[in-house]
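Exercise 7.
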Amino acid sequence: MFERIFYDRDKYENILQDPTSRFGRKINFFIQLCVFIAVAVILLETVRPYWEVYAQEFFFIDAIISLIFAWEYLYRFLHAKKKKTFIIKGMNIIDFLSFAPFFIGLIFSSAAWLDILKILRVLRTLRLLEVSAQSPIAIGFIKTIREYQKEYRAILWIFLSILIIISSFVYYVEFPVNPEFSSIPQSLWWWIVTMTTVGYWDMAPITLLGKSLGVILILLGPVLLAVISSITILVFMDVAESQKITESKICRTCKTRNNEHANFCFNCGEQHFTDMIQPEDTKRKIPLLNRLFAKK
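Solution. The predicted structure, written as tokens, is:
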């Protein structure tokens, strides 16, 4: 039983970082559950009828979750190899601020306004990205995005150029007869709202030319979404292709994939494996834009 709580101390600073540790995964799941509960409490506290009836229960839950967050932060701090770097790391600062206001408020009643910082607990959900980053698919997706950053950058610059040109043009056309377009930044706001087809109706062109440009923007919105979505889908296809199943062993008990050299299943601990699964031959990688605009 106790061997399952051990972790590779040469590779990981603490058990929460080791994806092969069953005990560490359970703790991570529990911390994530506490994050979601904390977010739910924050939302329910703003509902006046609930706050009037369940104020003590909310305080009790807040206290328990703050203690859990403090314990988790202290555990990771004590096991950190570079403690100064740990303290100034962005996510760790958010983790600290997610529980510190509760204890400060208990000591100094005048610091009750710090409760607003509890909203930072919502940002703790970003730590789920760190957990998912241990997945080969997630790592492959990030690397592939970096490989195709030129395509994303090209599309971004094209639409930014269109944004500035059309917004400036609309400003000079509308401003003499429509005071709502009081500046080019105001026109940029109208451009974004129109292109995303949100339509707040806080400002609208009244000239024929301005309305015509508005129609063009409405049509360009789905085009931008389609282009970005197509590229992102192709990136996922590249990731799926590059992450073909490598040689592995499948546990007959829980069907978990294990390393080819594994003697025991890291999930259930059994020693019953099926035959090795050989990797499929990867196809030749075709440039992204060639596939995007290729004729079928």
